Amino acid sequence: MLKLLVFMPVLGACLLAVFPGRGQQSLWRLALGFALASLLLTVLLAWSFDPLGEAVQMYESRAWNARLGSYFALGIDGISLAMVMLTAFLSLVAVLVSRNMPGSGRLYFALLFLLQSAMFGVFTARDWSLFYVFWEATLIPLFFMIDRLGGENRQRAALNFFLYTLGGSVFMLVALLFLYDAAPGHSFAMNDMAEGGRALPQNMQLLIFAGLFIGFAVKMPIVPLHGWLPLAHVEAPSPVSILLSGVLLKMGAYGLLRAAETLPAAFVAVQGWLAMLALLSLLYGALLAWRQQDLKSMVAYSSISHMGVVLLGIASLNLNGVTGAVLQMVAHGLAAALLFLVVGLLYRRTHSRDLADYDGLLGRAQRFAFFIAFGLLAAIGLPASAGFIAELHVLVGAYQRWGFWVVALGIAMLVGAAYGLRVIGHLHRPAAPTVQLHDMTRTETTAAALLAGAIVALGVWPMLLLDLVGSSTARIAALFAGG
After folding, report:
1. Pick from 163, 158, 125, 120: nearest CA to 142
2. Is the whole-model pTM more than 0.90?
3. Which residues touch 291 (CB under 8 Å, ≥6 apart)?
4. How far apart (Å, rounded) are the C-alpha atoms in residues 180 and 264?
5. How does pLDDT run across 43-61, given as a tens digit for each residue?
6. What is the pLDDT confidence band of residue 483, given thresholds at 50, 70 and 90?
7. Mind giving me the DSSP string for 167-205?
8. Backbone angles phi, psi at 158, to 5 degrees
């Protein structure tokens, strides 16, 4: 099932590339069919998954290069499954809102499914060499999606994204080679490398951790390695921004969790530094989001802040913190996707992202106004939203570890609430309409409603996600005996 999940999008990309139909709607229907099939397959995986069973389930492995100890090994635990389901869900949303995608629909949909395949591979790989191959494979479709289909500064944005991520990946590769050489057994299998990594002295673990952290921190991104993100988000087509913010950033946090299983002594040694970087990202991202007049830039900078919450949860190294980090990965993926979706649709209609141009939007386009306000409130962790449950877990975990120093997290959340309420105030502000604006279509409303419904469902019934990831996060936290 996992091989089918990983390679079915590749089949979809190939069929879309040679599909004889030339109409945009024909391509869209075929793409929608593959997106639905991927989501259905992840639902079947969730149905077959036992949260209280073995740590890694549906494991399958074939020798890839036996001499190097490299295997094509796939498997999932609760965290992997949560990320896989998020990927499939947001891919479906991205296809839904691409019904009238300007430009080359054939190229766009083919690249989108190649990207989906690589993301599935990252979250299901149980071999570090395979993980690295899929990690790098995400760069190629994303580069061309930004470079060919983006905005005016698309080439600069694509090059920045490519160089930043590739540079971080070089450090990650060197670190993996060090781990491969230092660990007994000379195997890239995650379980083998974790067993060997835990036996290494702290200094060696710190050296390997440094390389892995640079690679993962660039992707999350963590200040000061965030320079590629705002420009890439602004210039990328909105459906691409949905996947970039909703899934690609989570790959860095996911890799960091896997590194914590492998190098626990290093994580304990740098725990305080990770917390400082997390709080810096939290405050920096929130303050810059507050200062933005461009709506898409505001959402991009807010993503830096929210990924700081994820890093703080991981840095706490206890059950509540790690669980909150995983919940925040899902919650932010949904909220950011909703905001990028709505802002992108507005830009497609008005060719403006200036906040002042949307004064009085409530009186002109009620659906747009509702979903922007809903997305912002979800992003700042309003009760009954998935973000509230996630941030509460991180808050409790951070308090258990650092006590009242966690007040800094509360201050950052207040700044986040300020920029959200500022935008909502503009939506209600009376103003003369400057641009004729058509409200969201039925398909667009469906896509936004799916995201809003998932946010509320996980906020009201958080056990849907807590039961899924609980055993996996408990195993990570157990390595640190409560942090």
Report:
1. 158
2. yes
3. none
4. 17
5. 999 999 988 888 888 898 8
6. very low
7. HHHHHHHHHHHHHHHHSTT---BHHHHHHHHHTS-HHHH
8. -65, -40
